Amino acid sequence: MTAIAINRYILIMWHSVYARLYSRPHILLMVLFVWVVGFSLLVPPLLGAWGCLGLEPRSFSCTILKKDGASPKKLVFVVGFALPCTVMAAAYSCIYWRVKRSRAALKAHGTSGSRLSLEAVRAAGHAVNKNPKDVVGKPAAAGTGGGFRRRDDRRLTRLMLTVFCSFLVCFLPLTLVNAMDNLGAPPTLQLLSSVLAWASAVINPFIYAATNRQYRAAYRRLLCGCGADQPSASAPSPRQRLHHRGRVTSDSGTATVTTAGRVG
């Protein structure tokens, strides 16, 4: 999840270097690094060199136990939880700040957009009178496809932020209980924190269904056998909307040229 948060951060904050940084070889190295770090935290107790792995009767779970009065639980808490959570919180905070600033800029730009649009229409009318060929065949809107992609990127970022918050809710209690093992947490608290951690294995599909329309449609097809295989006409895909806008703009341009020719 930390790697995904960093990925979202670079995509939104440093979009120009994203494609170069996240090439296929680099992604494979990142995945390998994540697996190596995660596994290396469990090597000492697995070998019995620093603590050991065994059953904890109070929480009914297999976890890291003390051996000779020592265990790496605090190190696991710092490297496996506190540090990643700090990085994820910082990444999503920066993303939120950038999105908020962009929305403010778009809102400020929108106040003067009507004036600019009126001037652009008048200028286009003069251009049609001079040379109609300059208007016909113009592209619909430069960067419209990029707008759809960025909108999908922001939606995915919100989804990953929701997953991160659920990760905190599920694992923070158990991590704190394990880190403060010397204080002797009540068995009921240990059991409840373990149940929350186990719930993390099944909570993500519900998050995806609650936040993503495509997931809900896929679940309906999978569980109920209902729902069309193709996107409905009421909810066209971004590609269909872009194609439709291009056709509307082209037809409008043709109508403008025809009207201008009649007036002239």
UniProtKB/TrEMBL annotation:
The chain crosses the membrane at residues 27-47, 75-97, 159-179, 191-211. Gene3D superfamilies: Rhodopsin 7-helix transmembrane proteins. Keywords: Cell membrane, G-protein coupled receptor, Membrane, Receptor, Transducer, Transmembrane, Transmembrane helix. Residues 253-264 have a biased composition (Low complexity). InterPro entries: GPCR_Rhodpsn (IPR000276), GPCR_Rhodpsn_7TM (IPR017452). Its main location: membrane. It is found in: Cell membrane. It is a multi-pass membrane protein. Residues 1-208 form the G-protein coupled receptors family 1 profile domain. One of its GO terms (cellular component) is plasma membrane. Residues 231-264 are annotated as: Disordered. GO terms for molecular function: G protein-coupled receptor activity. It comes from the Eukaryota. Belongs to the G-protein coupled receptor 1 family. PANTHER family: B2 BRADYKININ RECEPTOR/ANGIOTENSIN II RECEPTOR, PROTEIN TRAPPED IN ENDODERM-1. This is Protein trapped in endoderm-1. The gene is LOC113204198.
